[in-house]
């Protein structure tokens, strides 16, 4: 099953775009190989507001948010996960508006396998992030004409959560599922085991549309999630094949299976392979000399 990505998306920088069910989308002006056209914020409510993922901590984003809020009460600032392009400005916005920051939890690594700071990716962590309100799986908060329910989806980050909008069938998926690209699962932030389990969790649901943290909507969620699961399993098989041929290091595997790789994404590819290997080791399919790490030697069990 192949994935049909959709890169057709207009960010409309500086303007809140009205979507369905009176949801407005505001895209930050922070395009990159990791953020696509920029980070999406979603604004709920009319007279009393809530925002999902206010975005990066920069003056342009803050000015745009305050202009869109236009003096109306902002009661809640929901965070899907604490990468800085999503949560970076949350604290400043909270201090200016009084909005309570809501998330699954504070920052925490999912893995201990990366100790080299040079191997972090551009979507850096907001390591000091701590919410005012901790919202567990299945817990809800109501506001002005809306209700959000947390669907915890660890994998991309340990504290990643999606939010279902009442009974509308709309789910705000953050970086867990996106229409324009597969999701980066990179230790120490990410865990492939958690990510695959979270995909299975979404595949069991009957949602109608995903509104992600970057790019446009996913309009066929169940089919799309199944395609992502198949893609990840295909990548896993490719790694196993490289080990059976004789590759023993992550560098060798990356060179073989990412032959047309944009060099700006080399760190991401390296960490993604590490995440797959972690998952294979925990299942006894692959063995490693010493502890799992970037410089380790891997082989089939």
Main attributes of the structure:
single chain; 301 residues; alpha/beta; Metallo-beta-lactamase, Chain A; Arc Repressor Mutant, subunit A; 2 domains; seven-stranded mixed β-sheet; five-stranded mixed β-sheet; 7 helices; 28% helix; elongated
Quick overview:
It comes from Bartonella apihabitans. The chain has 301 residues and is an alpha/beta fold.
Structural overview:
- Helix 5 packs across helix 6.
- The longest helix is centred in the C-terminal third of the chain and has 25 residues.
- This protein has seven helices and 14 strands.
- The protein has two domains: 214 residues, Metallo-beta-lactamase, Chain A (4-Layer Sandwich), CATH 3.60.15.10; 66 residues, Arc Repressor Mutant, subunit A (Orthogonal Bundle).
- The protein is elongated, with a radius of gyration of 19 Å.
- 28% of the residues lie in helices and 19% in strands.
- A hairpin with a 5-residue loop joins strand 1 and strand 2.
- The strands form three sheets. Strands 1-2-3-4-5-6-7 form a seven-stranded mixed sheet, with helices on one face.
- It is of the alpha/beta class.
């Amino acid at each position: 099953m192949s994935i049909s990505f959709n890169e057709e998306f207009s960010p409309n920088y500086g303007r809140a775009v009205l979507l369905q069910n009176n949801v407005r989308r505001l895209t930050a002006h922070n395009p990159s190989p990791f953020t696509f056209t920029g980070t999406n914020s979603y604004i709920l409510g009319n007279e009393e507001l809530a925002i999902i993922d206010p975005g990066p901590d920069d003056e342009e984003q803050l000015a745009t948010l305050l202009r869109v809020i236009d003096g109306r009460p902002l009661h809640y600032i929901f965070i899907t996960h604490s990468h800085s392009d999503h949560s970076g400005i949350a604290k400043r916005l909270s201090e200016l508006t009084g909005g309570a920051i809501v998330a699954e939890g504070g920052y925490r690594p999912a893995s201990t396998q990366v100790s080299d700071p040079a191997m972090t990716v551009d979507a850096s962590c907001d390591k000091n992030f701590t919410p005012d309100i901790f919202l567990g799986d299945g817990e809800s908060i109501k506001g002005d004409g809306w209700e959000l329910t947390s669907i915890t989806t660890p994998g991309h980050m340990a504290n990643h959560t999606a939010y279902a909008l009442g009974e509308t069938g709309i789910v705000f998926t953050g970086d867990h599922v996106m229409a324009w690209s597969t999701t980066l699962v990179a230790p120490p932030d990410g865990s492939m085991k958690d990510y695959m389990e979270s995909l299975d969790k979404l595949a069991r649901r009957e949602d109608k549309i995903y509104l992600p943290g970057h790019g446009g909507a996913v309009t066929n969620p169940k089919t799309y999630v199944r395609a992502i699961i198949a893609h990840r399993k295909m990548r896993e098989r490719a790694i196993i094949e490289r080990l059976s041929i004789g590759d023993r290091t992550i560098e060798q595997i990356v060179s073989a299976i990412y032959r047309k790789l944009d060099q700006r994404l080399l760190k991401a590819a390296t960490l993604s392979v590490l995440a797959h290997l972690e998952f294979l080791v925990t299942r006894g399919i692959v063995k490693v000399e010493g502890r799992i790490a970037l410089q380790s030697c891997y082989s089939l069990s």
